[in-house]
Automatic annotation (TrEMBL):
It comes from the Bacteria. Belongs to the class-V pyridoxal-phosphate-dependent aminotransferase family. Csd subfamily. Its cofactor is pyridoxal 5'-phosphate. This is Cysteine desulfurase. GO terms for molecular function: cysteine desulfurase activity; pyridoxal phosphate binding. It catalyses: (sulfur carrier)-H + L-cysteine = (sulfur carrier)-SH + L-alanine. InterPro entries: Aminotrans_V_dom, Aminotrans_V_PyrdxlP_BS, Cys_dSase_SufS, PyrdxlP-dep_Trfase, PyrdxlP-dep_Trfase_major, PyrdxlP-dep_Trfase_small. It comes from Palleronia abyssalis. GO terms for biological process: cysteine metabolic process. Residues 24-394 form the Aminotransferase class V domain. PROSITE patterns: AA_TRANSFER_CLASS_5 (PS00595). Catalyzes the removal of elemental sulfur and selenium atoms from L-cysteine, L-cystine, L-selenocysteine, and L-selenocystine to produce L-alanine. The gene is sufS.
Length: 406
């Protein structure tokens, strides 16, 4: 039984005030707040158990290594991966996608090869591919969403040609909340011999993910959106693809031996994890995944669907509010502007005075902003700890904005 009051009590920051008002945190799409168990885990890891991992035989190193490596298995279970050897731990989705760009795509592509992207992608799933365009002559092929923000799988697959070498697509838009049928895309792409990378930064937060069922070749997640620390994350890599990759970064841990005239690499996934990792950040991510699993992904999803439906009803009832995208089955993410001259930054500032935290700007989604014909929007992104009363607070604050800027 989902208990929203118990969930909220797990997040100490939710009890604070902002500008004399109770905090209404609606910016979880950028970075989620952390439950007490994550904060306690981080404190304990530093205060009681801290040491470097993989390199020592003393007690603290052994404890740290065991706690750190246990997270790899937790991530594998969370994503439905068959083996923890398919999990490369890193600082988040950006590093994960760059690892694929440099370690898999760059050695396998040449001028004229194509990468299919949706216009909804976050910059983390755009810029690494632009590097290949600038430096190698790879062509980026863009697929636009429908008017309601949906992205039909068949539309993505229609963009595939005999020069397509990769499809890179989001599981859930961080601006529109659109949920993409990545399983159908993967099935159709594999039938054409094309691998698929999925940006799971938003998707893994709001719905149960099973990479074995999806069948994708790469699935990237970022810990700070999963109620874990910043600087934590991972990427699932299908074993066949991992065998095709070369290391992206060189340093300690990713090697077996180093000599003057040769080196030998460690086994995967370690060979893609150079240097001292974010030990405590990853341990904190493990605690966050344990917390999410304890609440239940199905319960989290059901709660957020209820919030989404209520927020949609309230927000679409404001005839002076322009809400971007309304795809069926979307997530609890709403981007909007006000009619008139009010800039998103002005709206955000007024909302902040009422204790309501939203994101304002282009949300690292420049091509989508261009497609929508706007320079910036406000975004309210809901999470497991939000309530219907907070939706009402948001609407009241927006009505104030309308009075001020109309």
């Amino acid at each position: 039984m989902f208990d929203i009051d118990a969930v909220r009590k797990d997040f100490p920051i939710l009890s604070r005030e902002v500008n004399g008002k109770p905090l209404v945190y609606l910016d979880s799409g950028a970075s989620a707040q952390k439950p007490q168990v994550v904060l306690d885990t981080i404190q304990r890891a530093y205060a009681e158990d801290y040491s470097n991992v993989h390199r020592g035989l003393h007690t603290l190193s052994t404890i740290s290594t065991e706690n750190y490596e246990a997270v790899r298995g937790k991530i594998a279970d969370f994503l439905g991966a068959a083996s923890e050897a398919s999990i490369v731990m890193n600082t988040g989705t950006t590093e994960g996608i760059n690892t694929v760009a440099y370690g898999w795509a760059m050695p396998r592509m040449e001028a004229g090869d194509e990468i299919v992207l949706s216009v909804m992608e976050h910059h983390a799933n755009i810029v690494p591919w632009h590097f290949l365009r600038e430096r190698m002559g790879v062509k980026l092929v863009w697929v636009e969403p429908e008017a309601d923000g949906s992205l039909p799988a068949e539309k993505v697959l229609e963009a595939v040609t005999d020069r397509t070498r990769l499809i890179a697509v989001t599981h859930m838009s961080n601006v529109l909340g659109t949920v993409v049928d990545v399983k159908a895309i993967t099935s159709g792409a594999h039938a054409k011999g094309v691998p698929v990378l999925v940006d799971g930064s938003q998707g893994a937060v709001h719905m149960k993910v099973d990479v074995a069922d999806i069948g994708c070749d790469f699935y990237a997640i970022t810990g700070h959106k999963l109620y874990g620390p910043s600087g934590s994350g991972a990427i699932y890599i299908r074993p066949e693809r991992m065998a095709e990759m070369r290391p992206f970064m060189g340093g300690g841990d990713m090697i077996r031996e180093v000599h003057r005239d040769e080196i030998t690499y460690n086994d995967a996934p370690m060979k893609f994890e150079a240097g001292t990792p974010g030990i405590v950040a990853q341990i904190g991510l493990g605690a966050a995944l344990d917390w999410m699993t304890g609440v239940g992904m199905d319960s989290i999803a059901a709660h957020e669907v209820s919030l989404r439906d209520y927020a949609r009803e309230r927000l679409f009832g404001l005839n002076w509010l322009n809400v971007q995208g309304d795809a069926p089955g979307k997530g609890a993410i709403f981007s909007f502007t006000l009619e008139g001259a009010a800039h998103a930054h002005d709206i955000s500032t007024v909302l902040d005075k009422k204790g309501v935290a939203v994101r304002a700007g282009h949300h690292c989604a420049g091509p989508l902003m261009d497609h929508l014909g706007v320079t910036a929007t406000c975004r309210a992104s809901f999470a497991v700890y939000n309530t219907r009363s907070e939706v009402d607070t948001l609407v009241d604050a927006l009505e104030l904005c309308h009075e001020l800027f109309a």
